[in-house]
Specification:
Keywords: Membrane, Transmembrane, Transmembrane helix. The chain has 487 residues and is an alpha/beta fold. The protein is globular, with a radius of gyration of 32 Å. The termini are far apart. The protein binds 2-acetamido-2-deoxy-beta-D-glucopyranose (2 copies).
């Protein structure tokens, strides 16, 4: 009741406002009020003066602040900043598009496929297809080579000329190249796309590098060109294509043109041309301490996993990488000193259990499970890395366990299960002879921080005792921890 009554009462302040004259609002006649007015004007002038000083003095500062802001944004390269161009041909595309489908996601990957001629129905699970422009005016005179090298080299120009917005890196590969996109983003984040960069890797096969160049990015392994460099390269490429008609491949043409621009290759060991044939188990089990970026020549190598075809094998690797992309193929070695057993874990792929004490440097060399890229007598098998022989006798080899399943524990943790691949009827040491499966527990490997700048291998522990199944925990090593058997 009380409140209603009060509400009804007219508000005296409101009614007065209506009738206010200018004199009442600015009653200038009182001497006390005049001096306060002067003070206010003075304060206002001081305030304006300060603002003026800040702005005129701050112009160079503003530039500094915005340059800091720009350099901060450099490090936040995302998937959408990459534009992939895939060089394919009409004859290979139908078959090999199954590889592209494995790493391409329409929602988050930007990609375009270049073909020599069209005729495919559009498929939303694959990148859009473009037919390359005519290149018949360019000369090609490498004996026995393929003219398509010119078309594929020119994919670089045609991609840049598309004028897509917000591209920081142009990435090139073939239709039999599989990219680990998140890892490529991590790797490229190290570099400033506003500067000139040509990032990739050379061949595993020493002789190939002698023939082409140790500083050429082999095209199938994929390479990335920063936007600032790509724009310049696109402008000058045609003139280079006239000059390098004697060269074999598309990658030689790009390499030569970049050399003329004064740019050399930034080597990143995660790109893999895979210039080997057959079983690449040994190669996959000794990956450098750097994120896996690409795998190429998938049709020339055996499926990575037993009882699987190539597409399924790649799908399994990519599936594991979707849970912890930074850790895929990263090798950790742990020791059971009680039973003298050495275990080499290659996360997301395979585990090898050795009877005896194997020293770490020996386990970091590649087991030569593969054969040479070039066939024929007199071909030397010289590689760009140290190798060791892979015993022909299965009983002379380690026990091998291949990835079977992988999952997440909901937070940053993952588990992965590896199943024994049985070969031969071998006599094994008591401690390992019943071993059938291994479970590995790990936390997401963060390549964004320390690991990218100064990588360090991680350590692991074997939960003892084990019999049929073993549990391994991967963790960061202690500051002064050595990866060796405690003896
Ligand atoms: C590989 O296996 C999958 C699943 O069994 C099958 O769909 C696909 O056609 C196979 N690919 C090839 C090339 O044989
Ligand atoms: C290991 O498993 C086998 C077969 O299941 C069993 O006979 C043996 O006693 C077990 N050994 C240990 C040490 O638990």
């Amino acid at each position: 009741m009380n409140q209603t009554r009060r509400k009804r009462r007219p508000d005296p302040s409101l009614s007065r406002l209506d009738s206010l004259s200018p004199e009442m609002l600015f009653p200038a006649k009182s001497p006390a009020l005049t001096s306060s007015r002067i003070r206010n004007i003075f304060l206002l002038l001081v305030f304006c003066f300060i603002i003026y000083i800040i702005f005129s003095y701050g112009t160079f500062r503003r530039e500094k602040i915005s340059s800091i802001a720009r350099s901060l944004t450099v490090f936040s390269t995302r998937r959408r900043h990459l534009l992939f161009s895939i060089a394919a041909s009409h004859d290979s595309w139908l078959r090999r598009s199954s590889y592209v489908r494995l790493w391409y996601t329409p929602e988050s990957t930007r990609a375009v496929v270049f073909l020599d001629r069209g005729g495919f129905e559009s498929d939303l699970t694959l990148p859009p297809v473009v037919v390359s422009k005519d290149v018949s005016r360019f000369p090609y005179n490498f004996p026995g080579g393929l003219r398509s090298a010119i078309r594929v080299a020119r994919v670089v120009k045609e991609t840049v000329d598309q004028g897509d917005k917000d591209v920081r890196w142009f990435v090139f590969g073939d239709d039999d190249t599989v990219f680990f996109v998140d890892n490529l983003v991590t790797v490229l984040s190290k570099y400033d796309h506003r500067k000139w960069y040509y990032v990739g890797s050379n061949s595993e096969f020493y002789d190939q590098n002698v023939r082409y160049s140790f500083d050429m990015a082999f095209g199938g392994g994929g390479f990335a060109i920063s936007v600032s460099l790509a724009k310049v390269l696109a402008k000058v490429l045609d003139s280079c294509l006239m000059r390098y008609s004697h060269m074999y491949g598309s990658d030689s043409r790009i390499f030569s043109c970049l050399a003329e621009l004064g740019v050399t290759l930034t080597h990143e060991p995660g790109f893999h041309q895979i210039d080997v044939r057959g079983n690449i188990f040994g190669l996959l089990c000794a990956h450098p301490l750097s994120p896996l970026v690409s795998l190429h020549h998938l049709d020339a190598v055996d499926p990575f996993f037993p009882k699987m075809n190539r597409t399924e094998s790649v799908a399994r690797l990519i599936g594991a990488s979707s849970l912890d992309s930074g850790r895929i193929l990263q090798q950790s070695v742990c020791y059971d000193s009680l039973n003298t057993v050495t275990v080499s874990v290659v996360w997301g792929y395979a585990i090898q259990v050795y009877e005896g004490n194997k020293l770490l440097p020996d386990l970091l060399t590649l087991q030569k499970t593969f054969s040479t890229w070039r066939r024929g007598s007199g071909v030397q098998s010289n590689y760009m890395f140290s190798t060791r022989d892979y015993p022909r006798d299965p009983c002379g080899r380690s026990l091998v366990f291949f990835l079977d399943s992988v999952g997440s524990d909901g937070s940053e943790g993952t588990w992965s299960n590896y199943i024994l691949h049985r070969v031969g009827n071998c006599h094994r040491a008591e401690a390992v002879k019943r071993l059938e499966r291994i479970k590995v527990l790990s936390h997401k490997l963060d390549h964004d921080t320390q690991q990218m700048v100064s990588p360090r291998r991680q350590c692991c522990d074997i939960s003892s005792p084990y019999n049929k199944s073993m549990v391994i925990n991967i963790r960061q090593c202690m500051p002064d921890e050595l990866i060796a058997m405690n003896t």
